[in-house]
Amino acid sequence: MSRRIQVIGAHAADFVWRAGGAIAKTVERGGVAEVVALSYGERGESGELWKQPGQTVENVKRARHEEAQAACAELGASFRALDLGDYPLEIGAAELQAIAEVIREFAPDVLVTHTDTDPFNPDHPVAFRAVDRARSLAAGAGVQSAFATVKPPALYLFEPHQPELCNFTPTTFVDITSVFERKRAAMAHMKAQAYLQTYYAQRAEHRANHARRASGNAEVRYAEAFQRVIPQVVSEL
C-alpha cells in the first residue's frame, strides 16, 4: 500500500536535516511525500544569506524557497510554504486553520514535526503545538464530525539538534542507507545553512550504530531517529 508522509517544519530547511532520509525512503518504496514550511526562516535561519551586501527579506525568502524546492526535488517530495514569519513564529486562529487545512488536503498516513521543547530555538516548540493541534482538528479526534476529516495520521517527532535538551527519546530508527546519497544531495542545496551538512551526515552514522545494535542488522550504514507520539494499534505483539 502506498504511504503518504507529510513533514511540517517551522522553517524552510528543517525537513532536510532531520527527515530527508525518511522522505526519500517513502518515495523509493512507492509512497508520496509533501514538505510544508510554516515560515522560510528568513530572519533567524539564513545567516549566510544576510552576509551579502544590500540583502533584503524578500530576496532571502526567494532564495530559501528555491533551496527548499531543489532539496525536495532530490528527495522526490513536493514543497509548500505558508510564509507565516519567523523569530517569532506566531500561530493564531487563522494560521491554525490553515495548517489544519493543509493536513486535511494531503491526508497523510504519517505526520512528522518538531519536539515540544527546544531551549535554543523559540519557533520549534510553537510549530509542535500548532501541528499537534491542527492534526487533531483535521482528524476530528478520530470520530464523525460536522466537518470534513481525515484518518488520524501517525505522529512522529524528528530528532532536534540537541536531543538531550529537547525531551527527545528515540522510539524508531529508519534505515536510510539506500537513499543517503539523495539526502546528502538535498542537504547540499541548503547553502544558507551549509554548516549543518557535516553535522547531520555524522548524525546519520551515529544513529546507524544504534540501529544496528537494536536490530542486529549489520547492513544499516545510515539512519534517522524519530519519536512516536500516538500509540500504535496492532492485532498482536
Question: Overview of this structure, please?
Answer:
The chain has one domain (about 5-230): 3-Layer(aba) Sandwich (Rossmann fold), CATH 3.40.50. It is built from 6 helices and 7 strands. The chain has helices at about 15-30, 55-75, 95-105, 125-140, 180-190, 195-215; strands at about 5-10, 30-35, 80, 110-115, 155-160, 170-175, 225-230.
User: Which CATH class applies here?
Assistant: Alpha Beta
Q: Strand count, sense and closure of the main sheet?
A: 7 strands, mixed
Q: For the residues shown, what is the average pLDDT?
A: 95
Total count of domains: 1
Unreliable runs: none
CATH homologous superfamily classification:
LmbE-like
Helix-strand topology string? EHEHEHEHEEHHE
Range of strand content: 5-15%
CATH architecture: 3-Layer(aba) Sandwich
Oligomer kind: single chain
Give the neighbour order of strands across the main sheet. Answer: 3-2-1-4-5-7-6
Helix content: 25-40%
Q: Termini distance?
A: 21 Å
In CATH, the topology is named Rossmann fold
Number of strands: 7
Number of helices: 6
Radius of gyration: 17 Å
